[in-house]
Structures are given as structure tokens and as C-alpha cells.
Write a structure and sequence with these properties.
alpha/beta, GMP Synthetase, Chain A, domain 3, 8-stranded mixed beta sheet, binds adenosine-5'-diphosphate, about 375 residues, Rossmann fold, 3-stranded mixed beta sheet
């Protein structure tokens, strides 16, 4: 008996699956060659998709998206999704593609060229404890809330605190030697804290190791070629780190965080001078812990003095992008994994941080390199 083919064609199915993205790799599964067998029989569509690794944590998400897309095509009664795992060779092909092989014939690796569209912002401070990491996560979150695609490299290897501040834990997925950043609210994050066996363990980092870790985080992590801002939370102090960054990422800019205290600002100035020495542009200064209002509307008490941020900005000839008051909600937000721009968006500190993020974005517009 002659049976008429019921259901969509292979092309229609592939077209529908173009919209399904691998949730970690941020690319279409069709483009990534993850869709293998497709069979249609009496309105029953069978699709075989290959995952990068067998323990892919987001397999259910992928299966569901495939089901939804194909299920929406005319003539489909049933969708049968079968998952397989890529072979070593197939994974290498995928990594090659992601690294800029076929997908970006003009580019070697996403950040390693001066033409890269990603704005890299290295966040530095003269000394520890001034709120560099706190400012970093809040700026990142503010930009992400404005629709920007943002990543953070927690390069503060001595005191990695970004995972806690964003409430992220776990291990990044590794596809062979390529690491996939963990995500929170769309912010892609990589931290040494994800890789050490015990977070409380002290790590003794010497300059060359730090340089190597940083290069690994830049080159071996799949940040995605759509990333607009990449923040790097640097270890405090001047160190050779800015030299490492300047060598690895010629287009990175430096943002300096200081408290209003003259002593803190003068140490921070050294970080700024170091950046200048290696031709890294200092994009601005953010003064943190600027004043403390004991109650809403009360005149602020200058616990850490006044004016250090502005003075530093003037000395370096760069704008002061914000003055962030001392606020218990900021500290609580850091401890609970809910940054203040999210937990208390209307507080004066969150407003100041959001404003600083917008000024920063204005200084570093995406897609318009100067
Ligand atoms: P750094 O990265 O410079 O070492 P952190 O971001 O870890 O500094 O901040 C040090 C401590 O100060 C953290 O406990 C943080 O929650 C707190 N903190 C930072 N900024 C503020 C602020 N504006 N108001 C209140 N607490 C703050």
C-alpha cells in the first residue's frame, strides 16, 4: 500500500532547530553540528542529538527545547529525542569551531586581538578590602540588567570572592580542555574558586603562576563571541598583573576602585601609573565607602574621609564614575549572594552603582571602538 509521507521535511526540522541553543555554549545546536540523525515517519519525528559530554548538566533543557520546536511544526504527532555523546574527534571539531575556526574565519580567538568587540575592564585597587569585588559584581549585574552580555573573570586569586558574592558554586563543565563558565542572571563567571578542591585552602601564587592562570581563563574558557563586557577582578596592589593583562589583552582598560581615604587613594595611584606604563588606558575611578547615612536622608558621616576618589581621578586625568556610599545592604548583599543592585535596587548605593555602570558603558560603548 502506498503511504504518503506525513510531517515536515528534514530541512524544515533543521530550520526549526536553528533556534535551539546549547544553553552553555550559547550557539545553535545546528550550527554546532550537534543534530545528527533525523527521521520522519507518519508524523513521528526522531532526532538524534549529540551532547558534548555524557554528564551534560543541561541535557533536559536541550531535549525540551528540541521537543517544543519540532512539536510546533505542522503534521507532527510525536517527537522522539535520542541523545548521544560526541566522540573525541567530534569534540575537537566543535572546540575548533568555537575557537574561531570555521565560525570566525577572520579571528583566531575571541579576545586576543585588538579588534575584538568585547570590552575588557580590569578592576584594580591599591589595597585589599576597598570593595573592588563588590563594585565589580554590582557593575556587572547592572549592565546585565540593562541587557548587556557580561562576563567576570575572578582573577583575585588570593581572595576570590566573586562566587560567594553572586551565590554561585559548583564546577565548570569541561569539554576536553575548554572550560564553560558558570552563569548567574546571564553573567558568565569563571573563578579560581571553582577549580580549587577546598575554598578555604590558601593558595600560594607566584607571578608566573598568576600569569598562567589568567591566560588560561582568557584563552581556555568559552566566553562566547557575543560577550560585550568582560570584567576582571584583579588582586589588590600593583604587581606585574597589569603587565600580564596588557600583554595578553591589548585592548583592556583599567577601572580603579578606592576609598575616600588619602592613603588608599595614593596607593591606588600606583596601580594607575603601572597601567599607564604598560599602555593600558585607565577608564575611570570609582570611590567606594564614600559616606554613611545612619538613617535615610540624614547627613552622611565620612567614616573614611572625603575626596580621595576625586583627587585620584584628577591626578590620573580620568573621570570619577561614581561615589558609592557605605550601606549595610551592600555588605549583606555580598554575603548572601544577592548584589545590592538586585536586592535593594532603590537604595542610594544601588542607584550610585547603576549610575556608575552607565557612565562606564558610555565611556566604553560596545560596537564603537575608538
Ligand atoms: P576587595 O575586593 O577590595 O578586597 P570586597 O569587595 O571584598 O573588597 O569588600 C570588602 C568588604 O566590604 C566586604 O565585606 C563587602 O561586603 C564590604 N563592602 C564593600 N563595599 C561596601 C559598601 N559600599 N558598603 C558597605 N560594605 C561594603
Amino acid at each position: 500500500m502506498f503511504r504518503r509521507q506525513v510531517g515536515p521535511t528534514r530541512e524544515q526540522i533543521l530550520e526549526a532547530l536553528r533556534d535551539v541553543h546549547d544553553p552553555e555554549l550559547h550557539k545553535s545546536i545546528v550550527e554546532l553540528d550537534m543534530v545528527r540523525e533525523i527521521a520522519v515517519r507518519d508524523g513521528v519525528v526522531t532526532v538524534e542529538a549529540l551532547l558534548t559530554i555524557s554528564g551534560c548538566p543541561l541535557r533536559e533543557t536541550i531535549v525540551q527545547s528540541i521537543r517544543d520546536r519540532i512539536g510546533g511544526l505542522p503534521g507532527v504527532r510525536e517527537v522522539d529525542v535520542r541523545l548521544g555523546v560526541m566522540s573525541q574527534d567530534q569534540r575537537q571539531g566543535l572546540i575548533q569551531k568555537l575557537r574561531g575556526g570555521e565560525m570566525h574565519p577572520a579571528r583566531q580567538s575571541a579576545f586576543l586581538t585588538a579588534e575584538s568587540p568585547t570590552r575588557v575592564v580590569a578592576v584594580a585597587s591599591g589595597k585589599g578590602g576597598v570593595g573592588k569585588s563588590t563594585v565589580t559584581v554590582n557593575l556587572a549585574m547592572a549592565l546585565a540588567a540593562d541587557g548587556r552580555r557580561v562576563g567576570i573573570i575572578d582573577a583575585d586569586v588570593y581572595g576570590f570572592s566573586i562566587p560567594r558574592m553572586l551565590g554561585i558554586s559548583g564546577r565548570p563543565t569541561a569539554i576536553d580542555q575548554m572550560l564553560i563558565p558558570l552563569e548567574r542572571d546571564g553573567i558568565r563567571v569563571m573563578s579560581i574558586g571553582f577549580l580549587v578542591p577546598d575554598e578555604s585552602e590558601a593558595i600560594v601564587w607566584r607571578g608566573p603562576m598568576l600569569h598562567k592562570a589568567l591566560v588560561t581563563f582568557i584563552t581556555e574558557v568559552h566566553w562566547g563571541d557575543d560577550l560585550e563586557y568582560l570584567f576582571m577582578d584583579l588582586p589588590p596592589g600593583t604587581g606585574d598583573i597589569s603587565l600580564s593583562i596588557a600583554q595578553t589583552l591589548p585592548q583592556a582598560s583599567m577601572l580603579i576602585v578606592t576609598t575616600p581615604q588619602p592613603a588608599a587613594a595614593s596607593v591606588a595611584q600606583r596601580a594607575g601609573k603601572m597601567a599607564e606604563k604598560v599602555n593600558m588606558e585607565v577608564i575611570g575611578v570609582i570611590e567606594n565607602m564614600s559616606g554613611f547615612s545612619p538613617s535615610p536622608g540624614a547627613p552622611p558621616i565620612d567614616l573614611f574621609g572625603r575626596g580621595g576618589g576625586l583627587r585620584l581621578a584628577e591626578q590620573l586625568g580620568v573621570p570619577l564614575l561614581g561615589e558609592i556610599p557605605i550601606d549595610i545592604a551592600v555588605r549583606e548583599g555580598s554575603d548572601s549572594g544577592e548584589p545590592v543592585v538586585k536586592s535593594h535596587p532603590d537604595s542610594p548605593s544601588a542607584r550610585a552603582l547603576r549610575e556608575a555602570a552607565r557612565r562606564l558603558a558610555k565611556r566604553l560603548p560596545v560596537g564603537a571602538r575608538t
